[in-house]
Backbone:
């Protein structure tokens, strides 16, 4: 596996001289074309340092040979297309990737987006098909993202798969304090073959977003009716206080939220009640192109520290049973609970996200270093991710990340499967 690292670094070194090229203006590049095609290809190499004492390592490896490291190679292709004919546009985004590591190999093909958009009037748009919606102003989390798949806080800008919807946009502009008003009603059906992972089948879910631009403040009111999921509503806002300081926030209320909870013996109950999630954040840009993002996230659907500790003890009890009797009934039940909520990226209640990035420090062109931290305020565990990004080669992006997880036993980041993860990838855009 180390040979892959050497080959990947060699490709970086050999490609570096290609960064010097002259700029040429071609007016044809700016002409609107009826058909557009683009995307990227990516090669990524990961090295994991595993945490053999962690609950999620025990769940994942109890039937496998015990190991301290894992190396994985991933190749990916994302293809985007857009065809415009008059007032109609068809948009497509497909994603395929293949992975191979020390244990297995896999391939996955997904259509992220495939929808038709009709805009007969500047104030009206109708979208039909599979579309990725982005509701909310948060960077790492979006409590009001009722009709979208959750972000990965470790990489919030990753492309995400959408849902099949019928959505419209009605937009009106005004003179005065209220500058823009936009209404987005939406229908999201759920069945065995459409949006099956959204929730209970047999429903056509109704959602809506009402947008205001009022006195330079962006405001959204959002709603999802009862159906495949329980009813919920919320709001978000974003405002530039100065030219280089922006603040944003989200608030969401979920009624009749269900949560599966286990004790240390594996007795599982379902709790139901109304919960509130919220987020407050800021983005600051300095004169020397340093960007700082800070967010606090309150996850109303999350577990308490004592509930997570019961789950960790349940895993230990299941492993003891397996080592004594070779039976994995308890561990299989723990795996199911992990998929139902305990294994989410951030399953607890209070988090802080911070990211600092600097463009071209010390006059190093096309180079952007950054560092990201996520801290669980309930158990004081955290992750630190330094990152190096180089974009000096035309259409090529080279990135290195090191994920370092820190926490005691019976803490979120102390019980994850990995202690460290080193990632190197190269991505070529076309």
Residues:
């Amino acid at each position: 596996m180390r040979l892959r690292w050497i080959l990947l670094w060699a490709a970086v070194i050999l490609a570096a001289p290609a960064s010097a090229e002259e700029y040429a203006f071609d007016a044809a590049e700016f002409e609107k074309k009826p058909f557009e095609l683009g995307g990227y290809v990516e090669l990524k190499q990961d090295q994991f340092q595993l945490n053999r004492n962690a609950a999620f390592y025990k769940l994942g490896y109890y039937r496998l040979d015990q190991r301290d490291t894992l190396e994985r190679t991933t190749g990916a292709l994302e293809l985007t297309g857009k065809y415009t004919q008059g007032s109609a546009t068809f948009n497509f985004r497909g994603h395929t990737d293949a992975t191979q590591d020390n244990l297995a190999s896999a391939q996955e093909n997904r259509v992220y987006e495939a929808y038709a958009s009709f805009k007969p009037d500047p104030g009206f748009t109708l979208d039909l098909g599979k579309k990725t919606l982005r509701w909310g102003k948060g960077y790492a989390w979006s409590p009001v993202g009722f009709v979208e798949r959750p972000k990965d806080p470790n990489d919030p800008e990753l492309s995400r798969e959408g849902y099949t919807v019928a959505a419209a946009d009605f937009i009106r502009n005004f003179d005065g304090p209220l500058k823009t008003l936009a209404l987005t009603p939406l229908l999201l059906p759920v069945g065995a073959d459409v949006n099956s992972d959204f929730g209970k089948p047999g429903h056509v879910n109704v959602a809506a977003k009402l947008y205001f631009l009022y006195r330079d403040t962006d405001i959204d009111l959002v709603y999802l009716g009862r159906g495949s999921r329980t009813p919920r509503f919320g709001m978000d806002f974003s405002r530039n206080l100065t030219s280089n300081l922006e603040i944003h926030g989200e608030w969401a209320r979920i009624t009749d939220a269900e949560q599966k909870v286990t004790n240390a013996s594996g007795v599982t109950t379902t709790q139901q009640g109304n919960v509130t999630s919220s987020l407050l954040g800021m983005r600051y840009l300095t004169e020397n192109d340093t960007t700082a993002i800070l967010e606090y996230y309150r996850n109303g659907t999350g577990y308490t520290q004592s509930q997570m500790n019961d789950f960790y003890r349940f895993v230990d009890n299941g492993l003891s049973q397996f080592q004594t009797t070779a039976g994995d009934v308890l561990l299989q039940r723990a795996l199911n609970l992990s998929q139902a909520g305990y294994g989410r990226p951030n399953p607890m209640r209070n988090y802080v996200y911070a990211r600092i990035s600097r463009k071209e420090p010390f006059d190093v062109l096309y180079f952007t270093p950054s560092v990201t931290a996520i801290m669980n305020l309930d158990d004081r565990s955290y992750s630190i991710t330094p990152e190096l990004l180089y974009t000096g080669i035309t259409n090529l992006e080279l990135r290195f990340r090191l994920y370092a997880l820190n926490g005691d036993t019976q803490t979120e980041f102390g019980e994850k499967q990995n202690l460290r993860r080193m990632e190197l990838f190269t991505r070529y855009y076309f």
Observations:
- Helices lie at 2-15, 55-61, 305-325, 329-342.
- Residues 305-325 form the longest helix (21 residues).
- The chain has one domain: 41-429.
